[in-house]
Structures are given as structure tokens and as C-alpha cells.
């Protein structure tokens, strides 16, 4: 009986906590566009439905940006960095109650634009969580003097 319960929980966890979707990651030097559902936000100026762009300040060398961005992202509640390199950060953010995972991605473009994409892995609506997360990140980056 206990084995059946374990199998049921493991099976359910795949539904609640699915792996990162194929849209996560950099392709052709950009982040994937949002799918048109309200549970995704994309800030890139090159993205037709994007929000206000973010541009890195000129005070830091490009090689100094990723570690500073990581510090800011890691300080966000329930956030864990999964991947990081010289121009890209992917983090998972878990919801407070049900522990659903959202993907937060940051990409430093050659012109120092910081493109941010935050998307829920499941569902269609998120009650504005991803939009608030991006605005919280914007405020944290401004406070850290990393964007203008």
C-alpha cells in the first residue's frame, strides 16, 4: 500500500513540477517569445509585446555583470539559479503555497540591454505573479545600480 502511495505522489509531482520546457534557453541569441498567455512576461525591446526595456549601466565591465546579476537574482524569495554563463541566467522560482515552478531568464545582449523572461510552467493565468516578479527584479537591479 505504501508503495502505491509513493508511486502516486511521484506521478503527481511530474504534473505539478514538470521539467523546464523547451522554450527555456537562448536560441538565435534571444529568449523565446511568450506564448500569448497571461502567465508570461518578456521585456525585450525586440519582442513585439515586450514591456519597458532594461539597459545595464556603463559602470561595470561586461565580465562583471553576470556575478552581480546572480547576487540580485539569488536574493529573490524562493529562487534558485539553475544555469549561468557570461550572458545568460536561468533560475527557477517556486510559488509560496503549491510550490509550482516558474522560469526566470535573463540575457545580456551585446548592446547591454538586459532581456528578462518570466513564465509559469503550468496553467494559463498566474494572477500577475510573473509581471510583479519582473518589476521586483527591475527595482532590485535599479537599487543595485546595475540598470538605468
Q: Your description of this structure?
A:
The chain has one domain: Kinase associated domain 1, KA1 (TATA-Binding Protein). With 148 residues, it is an alpha+beta fold. Helix content is 27%, strand content 26%. Strands 3, 4, 5, 6, 7 and 8 form a six-stranded antiparallel beta sheet that branches. It has a two-stranded antiparallel ribbon with strand order 1-2. The chain has helices at residues 2-16, 65-74, 129-143, and strands at residues 26-27, 30-31, 40-42, 54-55, 79-84, 88-94, 101-108, 113-120. It is built from three helices and eight strands. Mean pLDDT is 87; it is low at 4-11. The radius of gyration is 16 Å and the shape is globular. The longest helix has 15 residues, at 2-16.
**Structural class determined from secondary elements:** alpha+beta
User: For the record, what is the CATH homologous superfamily label?
Assistant: Kinase associated domain 1, KA1
Domain count: 1
Distance between the termini: 58 Å
Query: How many extended strands?
Result: 8
User: Could you describe the largest sheet, including whether it forms a barrel?
Assistant: 6 strands, antiparallel
* CA-based shape: globular
Proportion of residues in helical segments: 25-40%
At the fold tier of CATH, the topology name is TATA-Binding Protein
Tell me the radius of gyration. 16 Å
Amino acid at each position: 500500500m505504501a508503495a502505491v502511495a509513493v508511486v502516486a505522489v511521484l506521478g503527481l509531482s511530474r504534473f505539478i513540477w514538470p521539467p523546464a520546457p523547451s522554450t527555456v534557453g537562448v536560441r538565435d541569441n534571444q529568449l523565446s517569445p511568450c506564448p500569448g498567455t497571461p502567465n508570461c512576461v518578456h521585456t525585450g525591446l525586440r519582442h513585439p509585446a515586450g514591456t519597458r526595456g532594461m539597459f545595464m549601466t556603463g559602470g561595470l565591465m561586461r565580465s562583471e555583470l553576470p556575478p552581480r546579476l546572480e547576487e540580485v537574482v539569488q536574493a529573490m524569495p524562493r529562487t534558485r539559479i539553475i544555469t549561468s554563463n557570461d550572458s545568460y541566467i536561468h533560475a527557477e522560482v517556486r510559488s509560496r503555497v503549491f510550490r509550482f515552478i516558474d522560469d526566470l531568464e535573463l540575457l545580456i545582449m551585446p548592446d547591454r540591454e538586459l532581456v528578462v523572461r518570466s513564465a509559469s510552467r503550468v496553467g494559463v493565468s498566474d494572477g500577475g505573479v510573473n509581471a510583479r516578479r519582473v518589476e521586483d527584479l527591475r527595482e532590485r537591479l535599479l537599487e543595485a545600480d546595475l540598470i538605468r
